[in-house]
Amino acid sequence: MKQIKKKLKESNPFRNRKYIAIVLYIFCFILFFSIFSRFAWIMVKGEVNGENLVSNVHNLYTRNNILQANRGTIYDSAGNPIAMDSNTYKMIAVLTNEWSTSENPIHIQEPEAVAQILTKHLSMSEKELVERLTQENSQVEFGSAGKNLTYETVSAIEEELEEEELTGITFEEKKSRLYPNGIFASHTIGLAQSDMENQEDQTLHGVLGLEKEFDDSLSGKDGWIEYQRDRFGYVIPDQEIKEVEPTNGKDIQLTLDRRMQIYLESIVEEVNEQHEPEVLTATLMHAKTGEILATTQRPTFNGTTKEGIDQTWQNYLTEYTFDPGSTLKAMTLASAVEEGVFNPNDYYKSGKIQVGGGTVHDVKPEGWGTISYLEGVARSSNVAFVHQVQKMGLDTWKEHLDSYGFGQPTGISLPNEYAGSNPYSSVLQQVNTSFGQGISVTPVQMLQAFSALTNKGKMVQPHLVKAISNGENEQKESFDSAEIPTLLSEKAADQTLDYLTETVNSEVGTARGYAIDGFEIAAKTGTAQIVGEDGSYLTGNSNYVYSVVGMGPVEDPELIFYVTVQKPKLNGVGHGSHVVQKIFNPVMKRALEYYSSEDLKSEFELTYENMDNLIQKNTQEVINDEKMNGKNVSIIGTGDKIVQQYPLANSEINNSDRIILMTNGAMTLPDLTGWSRGDVIKLSELTGVDVSFSGEGFVESQNVSPNSFIESETKITVTLSANE
């Protein structure tokens, strides 16, 4: 009985509960202390699992936006824009109604009606559009047809949709590069575009030509802005906003003359269509300064539409090497004159000569009998020039070739310049260089070498960039002519030019067909063999590089014009030189007319200022304002108040920019004669009218008469011509 009582006492439930309560109190204390310690630690350190809570909260309500810098504009020598920033648009259709409200639907409701409007402006059929607009997606894009849309196309679509009260089409804006002149020294100017793989990054990067070479100068530096928003997305008032303004890219002024460039492009395009050469280059250079005044090539491309870009990415001015042929004889002749071995009235037997284990033939293998060396120059006799190299010595001739810069880049401001080559190994190869075979050159190297003849024995380095400025009339860097000494004396250079007139003036001269009425020029033609894939020279048909260099006026040369045409289809002409003449003669004549009576130093210096705000100002007062005197101002409309303007207020303009002002009256079309393609595009963006172009260059005619009333539905066709 006592044992039973003892067990009952030991198993007292009240005593057990006391122990349990003590344990629970201790556990709760430990738990509370742990939680308190954790919170205290978080409050002191502001971190959880290595993450900064203060930073996370800051990021949650803070917005950082990139302020994108504007890319610098590229201008021609007279301040006309060649490459400039623009905006393009991508079209998107919203197909789901989950983002709409009954009062404000934003999705496609009538796909057939929307498709009828879109097919007018996109290269897609109505059936294709309906299929896109009825897909089971939240939204849909339209491929390449819906990308890179212009402002005028977007405006026209939006206006028609609004008239029909149709919804569901939206546009995303994207910064792009505009090349308003179309095909205009395209490989030389180059290309800038955004990263195709990173759609979020709209920064433009130069990928070709001057756009690539001067990408750092043109790009500028992006800025940023930081501000706070509440949980509903509204900007918190009276906050301190942090902002760093973007630094816009620098502007570049080139040496290109728009008049000559457009004319050259038009002539070259005609020849390219008629004769379809594999490669064509044509470059006009100022003989005394090395300024490239105009340059083009075929194949080429349109910088804005990218049409033709897949044909070649090479800039043939610097990235195309070839055997120059007989045009190099101009430099052989100069060296022989300098070394005193060229005697024009001495005689030799033409036809062929054995040298270095091989035979060198004239173009007429049986020759012209015994003739003077001056006649040999006129006839472009290979044998005559081999004699000159033999007389001066092969080592001396090599020194002259090196002094002309062959085998070395010229340093022109373009990427990927080739150096060419001159192995100068076997005796036969060495003498072959006297008539331009066995040595590879680039067009820009040839231009530099020819400048020694027009510049008293000193070469001038070819260049394309005249100045780089920050767009505020403060010139940061200018590019002056750089002279490079050669082994030629002034006397030898002048005498060589005189001898080279024989090729044009002599009855037997190979350049008779290149004579220019009213001007005397020195010239040298070339017909060079092309090295095939197996290392041997191609023969037959037109498998040659036909070329010519002309320098004039010969009494005081201002211009050097060099043209090469590789493997053209003759199509009705007897010889490849006739194809070259179709380019050389009209362009050289036009250039000599332009520059023979002009000072080639630029008459135009870029001056910048901020555009005034003219909105709501009296039209007549603006016209009479002294600040508007001398500026290209065009008025659209008959009203008494200015309601729109281009360029926008406070934007930087230079003294060549055309200012377009729209009044509150009915829209009228100005006389567009002489306007550039870029100016007409500005007019189209401002008015919303649809403009189509025919040709290249400046406006020659328009289908709607000047001062006619126009509306946004008006369709205008303008014809462009190379004649300004």
UniProtKB/TrEMBL annotation:
Membrane topology: Single-pass membrane protein
Gene3D superfamilies: 2.20.70.70, 3.30.70.2110, DD-peptidase/beta-lactamase superfamily, Penicillin-binding protein 2a (Domain 2)
CDD domains, per database record: PASTA_Pbp2x-like_2
Record Pfam families: PASTA, PBP_dimer, Transpeptidase
GO cellular component: plasma membrane
Localization annotation: Cell membrane
Domain of life, source organism: Bacteria
UniProt entry tagged with the keyword Transmembrane helix: yes
GO BP terms in the entry: cell wall organization
UniProt keyword Coiled coil present: no
Molecular function terms, GO-annotated: penicillin binding
UniProt keyword terms in alphabetical order: Membrane, Transmembrane, Transmembrane helix
Bilayer-crossing regions: 20-44
Domain PASTA, chain residue ranges per copy: 663-722
Family stated for the protein in its record: Belongs to the transpeptidase family.
Protein name (record): Penicillin-binding protein 2B
Organism: Alkalibacterium gilvum
